[in-house]
Write a structure and sequence with these properties.
Two copies of one chain form a homodimer. Chain A is an alpha/beta fold. Chain A has helices at residues 133-146, 160-171, 190-205, 222-236, 239-245, 265-280, 283-295, 298-301, 306-310, 330-342, 366-383, and strands spanning 5-7, 19-22, 27-28, 34-35, 39-45, 55-59, 85-86, 91-92, 97-101, 116-117, 122-123, 152-158, 176-182, 316-322, 346-352.
Chain lengths: 392, 392
């Protein structure tokens, strides 16, 4: 553990990816492949307390990163959970030591297909091994080892973050005091896989993808990746949210143009989502992370019975879903809750009424924030951590 | 009218597109553009009765065609509505004279972007004018003129066919005795437009699309069109249907391969949907027809009040939706029904309970077929047509 190397410096010209750790030991992946070296880029907020009991591990979503509450180095946008994480906020950095790492397979500083394969000196590309949610979690566990954190007060996240939180609870039940899986599921459905497959096919259809070798060839499959993002983005919003936001309103024009320009605001919005995404995300990372999601299946980990994956768990769970989320509908969260109930686990469940769809977990949703705050307060009391957000 | 030219012969080597009619007069499109010549490929089934009162006009969906009850010349598949249309069937060709034409802008013999632009001698490509649902209906009206049919007993169709049926009722209320819009809507929602825009961007991202000139250049944007089809296909099925059909079952393998092959059956299925579609459909037609759908807005035609589009209508309506259709959800059919009620129109409405999603209108759904049969029987009696399907 003390051989792990913490790197704070960045190569010249590269965007700053925050802190990073290169694991001392190779990582044996779920596929059986051994991966080394493994570097994790991460950020921390707040201070670890004396008994190392106040760590909140935030897990990010498919296209998220570790810049939870600090500016993104490429887009310069504020942290993606700045509404929730900070001094006096629900995830109070005056009380908690918040850790978030870029997932294994990612493209913001952690080891992934865009990093250099030491065996060839070239970017990994498709030679990078397929990774799973479990592999991401195993790598995070090594990071916590390095930080001297034996037990996490709370592991939480939305969407793919929820899946990591669940995997943490299943894989390391005695290292997790509480878990908040938000807007997630226990496995990818056929429809989830189908949408991801469309995205992957869009990327692979782009000749600039070059069978995954685009970085070595100095290209970028921007068009394919943009289409993938556009298709996915529709699934992040509810039909009602799209209607309220755009309806059939026209974009900077008074009448239909009878052409293929972006007549409608929703077209212009989607194109913008696609074109900005490709500036900050790697196409191969998108392939690998969507694959990890598709492979995720806690029911299989429970030998076909989801409850078995949780049997004997000491973890306190708070499962949160959003009523208009059709990507990971409430019913899937309820399935998790039923499984936890079946093994007499400590679980609370809230379906937050929201019109925002899946992306509600990223937005300022008062009921969602109140639910988290209430659960964290109870769990903190049980754990003996002072938590009473000052300005709330 | 008697100048219209009916062509029965086909160019050597071209697939047989059935009957066709070239309009004698140019068509003035909704955009104001004048289009000529306009050819419509069509099929008929059954016999027109002496008083020409038994015509059922079937309108096809986005990627449908006029081969309602006869084999498709390219795929050799049986007609897409063979379950419903034929002797003794619900749409009884022993009693009705069934007409269906390939829509304007289509690619199965009607004038569209893949046909020759007489001004250049080359395929139209993007020089083809943007057409609308109203333009499709205007062209169909000319076909009925040619066939000597002043009034249609029933105009009906699913999905885009429903929109044409509604447009017929609004545009030609005195030429329509009854109308059955199935699994449709009165306008494209922001989500509908968004999914179509993804498809269009996928096509346009394919370098083989060549800014629409691929036919002249001897190319075909197969990869982009396949991605467009895959994305759209997901919207045709319900989440439950995908789950029942595929779940997380693997394709011809016992375990995950930790790669990007089609591990899951749903991936294999989607890839097949994409690759077979490109053999029978033209990419530019896909652009034009999706655009026509996005532009469709009967509420706008009613001056912002949907009911006004129907005011005074003598048409008998039967509006049918499917409970699990999330592309054109039941709520949109109900909006149509409310508008019709508001102007005291003759309307019945059935939401068919089905798990099949939008594509239920193409499947053997007994409650759906019974609903149509009941409505057609009542309407036929009112119109004085003998209709009592023999074998039902």
């Amino acid at each position: 553990m003390n051989l792990d190397k913490t790197q704070q410096s960045q190569p010249a010209g590269a965007p700053a990816h925050g802190k990073s750790l290169t694991l001392a030991e190779p990582l044996t992946l779920q596929s059986g492949v051994t991966l080394a070296p493994v570097t994790l880029a991460y950020e921390t907020y707040g201070t670890l307390n004396a008994d190392r009991s106040n760590c909140v591990l935030v897990c990010h979503a498919l296209t998220g990163d570790h810049f939870v509450a600090s500016a993104h180095p490429i887009t310069k946008n504020p942290g993606w959970w700045i509404d929730l994480v900070g001094p006096g906020k629900v995830i109070d950095t005056d009380k908690f030591f918040v850790v978030c790492s870029n997932v294994l397979g990612g493209c913001m500083g952690s080891t992934g297909p865009k990093e250099i394969n030491p065996a060839t000196g070239a970017p990994w590309g498709l030679a990078f091994p397929v990774i799973t949610i479990r592999d991401m979690v195993q790598a995070q566990a090594r990071l916590l080892d390095h930080l001297g954190i034996e037990s996490v007060f709370c592991v939480l996240g939305g969407s793919m973050g929820a899946m990591q939180a669940l995997e943490w609870a299943v894989r390391f039940p005695h290292r997790v005091f509480s878990a908040i899986p938000i807007a997630g599921s226990y496995r990818h459905s056929a429809q989830n896989i189908a949408f991801h497959e469309v995205g992957r096919q869009a990327i692979m259809a782009d000749p600039d993808w070059s069978h995954g070798n685009y970085l070595a060839e100095g290209k970028k499959p921007k068009r394919g990746l943009a289409v993938a993002r556009m298709a996915a983005h529709i699934t992040y919003l509810s039909e009602v949210a799209l209607h309220n936001k755009f309806g059939r309103r026209l974009q900077n024009r008074d009448a239909l143009t009878y052409g293929f320009e972006a007549d409608f605001q929703v077209e212009s919005y989607l194109r913008h989502q696609g074109s900005t995404f490709v500036e900050r995300f790697d196409a191969n990372s998108y392939l690998y992370i969507t694959r990890a999601l598709d492979y995720f299946d806690l029911q299989a980990e429970g030998g076909g019975v989801l409850a078995e994956a949780f049997r004997g768990t000491p973890v306190r769970f708070c499962v949160i879903s959003f009523s208009s989320d059709w990507l990971y509908p409430t019913g899937e969260s309820k399935t998790i809750v039923h499984a936890l109930n079946a093994v007499a686990a400590n679980v609370s469940f809230v379906e937050v009424a929201s019109q925002q769809g899946h992306d509600a977990f990223l937005l300022d949703e008062p009921e969602f924030h109140q639910t988290m705050e209430g659960f964290l307060a109870g769990a903190a009391e049980a754990r003996g951590i002072a938590y009473r957000p000052a300005n709330r």
